[in-house]
Specification:
CATH class: Alpha Beta
Number of helices: 10
GO biological process, one term: thiamine biosynthetic process
GO cellular component, one term: cytosol
Oligomer: single chain
Strand order of the largest sheet: 3-2-1-4-5-6
Radius of gyration: 17 Å
Strand content: 15-25%
Protein name: Hydroxymethylpyrimidine/phosphomethylpyrimidine kinase
Mean pLDDT: 93
Largest sheet: 6 strands, mixed
EC number: 2.7.1.49, 2.7.4.7
Shape: globular
Bound molecules: adenosine-5'-triphosphate, 4-amino-5-hydroxymethyl-2-methylpyrimidine
Number of strands: 9
InterPro entries: HMP/HMP-P_kinase_dom, PM/HMP-P_kinase-1, Ribokinase-like
Helix content: 25-40%
Low-confidence stretches: 269-273
Length: 273
């Protein structure tokens, strides 16, 4: 069985962060592992508080995984401060895992900040160059590329600008745009569009975590980046289509529907060892 590690924040309400990542991994038939970088007291409506785990303890969790287990892909989510970023970057440089997907989380769906605004420079310097795939949403791409994005053409320019910062591929996600949900992938060579009709729901808490974890799972199974993104897009679309009206704010994506629909065939899990 392929093994995928999430390095991210904990969402106690279960819709985003490490919890969404582990649910996505299970639905993809890969073995999920987690390094908790921050404990977030949050729900579908608001973020109450953030407690970062110490750099030392972040490092020790990463050591614990890598000294014992072969990791096929890593998904990195919320890193709230430069200290958290440096702790993660140091260990990634040490272990140089394959298939690193970075979701540069800055805000929750309800608009609450999850990253210190001043940490963008450290993100660009230490984390982005380690990413095989970077998955910013539009507000995150605006901050990283330091430009406004209001059109698909702007999304393409931002993807190319961010690619030049040293990651191997960038997907600017269109969840925050109007009209169809269009994601733009730039792999240094070509621009690809992944488009679905927009689903009319407020229950989109954790869509970005779901999407990036699905990409990491697919890369672990040796798919090309293009195929990994195409299948992750299908996965997240279904998870939004069947999203759950849990809580009073933006409800979470639904992983069980995907599980039941596809089942866990040998072909789907990659192998049965
Ligand atoms: N209403 C929607 N209908 C269809 N697809 C959507 C919708 N909202 C988001 N998506 C898709 O979900 C994926 C995640 O994009 P999004 O921009 O929502 O991420 P995000 O803002 O980082 O999510 P979060 O911060 O809540 O984890 C993308 O593939 C995007 O196109
Ligand atoms: C812990 C955590 N990570 C990521 C997100 C983004 O949705 C969130 N709301 N909470």
């Amino acid at each position: 069985m392929k093994k995928v590690l999430s390095i991210a924040g904990s969402d106690c309400s279960g819709g985003a962060g490490v919890q969404a990542d582990l649910k996505t991994f299970s639905a993809h038939g890969v073995f999920g592992m987690s390094v908790i970088v921050s404990v977030v007291a949050e729900n579908t409506s608001r973020v109450i508080d953030i407690q970062d785990v110490t750099s030392d303890m972040i490092g020790k969790q990463i050591d614990a995984v890598f000294e014992d287990i072969e990791v096929d892909a890593v998904k990195i989510g919320m890193l709230s401060t430069p200290e958290c970023m440096k702790a993660v970057a140091e260990k990634l440089l040490k272990y140089s895992p394959q298939n690193v997907v970075v979701d540069p989380v800055m805000y929750a769906k309800n608009g609450c900040p999850l990253m210190e605004p001043s940490a963008v420079d450290t993100l660009i310097e230490t984390i982005i160059p380690l990413a095989d795939v970077l998955t910013p949403n539009i507000p995150e791409a605006e901050k990283i590329a330091d430009m406004q994005i209001s059109t698909i053409a702007n999304m393409e320019v931002a993807a190319k600008k961010i690619y030049a910062m040293g990651c191997k591929a960038v997907i600017v996600k269109g969840g925050h745009h109007i009209g169809n949900a269009i994601d733009i992938l730039f792999d240094g060579d070509r621009v690809y569009h992944f488009e679905t009709t927009r689903i009319d729901t407020k229950n989109t808490h954790g869509t970005g975590c779901t999407f990036s974890s699905a990409i990491a799972s697919n890369l672990a199974k040796a798919m090309s980046i293009q195929d990994a993104v195409a299948q992750a897009k299908a996965y997240v679309t279904m998870a939004i289509e069947h999203s759950l009206a849990i809580g009073n704010g933006c409800g979470p994506t639904n992983h069980f529907y995907n599980l039941y629909k596809y089942g866990l065939s040998e072909e789907r899990t990659g192998n049965t060892k």
